[in-house]
Amino acid sequence: MSIKQLTVFVENKPGTLVTITDTLAANNVNIRALSLAETQDFGVLRMIVNDLEVASRTLSEQGFLIKTTEVIGVKIGDDPGKLTAALQVLKDAGINMEYLYAFMARTPRHAYVVIRVEDNDQAEAALEGAGFHLITEEDINKL
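Structure (tokenized):
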């Protein structure tokens, strides 16, 4: 049930991010979620998009280094403590989280959290067992 995340390695110079977003827009790719972490020389742009194949192909053609990663998406209530509850489930199951980022959904009172862990199947089972709803590629495409 994991979802695919596009990771783009970005040179840290003016206009690089605009090139990426412009390329995606010109090819009708919609960014559903993103996270950008930077260092002095480069950044790591992580995105959930509506058309992974087109995004990967067009950005590769522009010379960007692309990687696809399986991540899990969790729908959580938009209330204090709901993220903590999801993270506690992973902690209790002994699952180490590598990173996460969140985005708001169009549905009221919910947010989606994208989580990268070592073992997606184990994390999905733990979260579903605790009553959390996992999101799918189909759910992403409906946003």
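The domain at 70-142 is CATH 3.30.2130.10 (VC0802-like). The CA atoms of residues 36 and 45 lie 4 Å apart.
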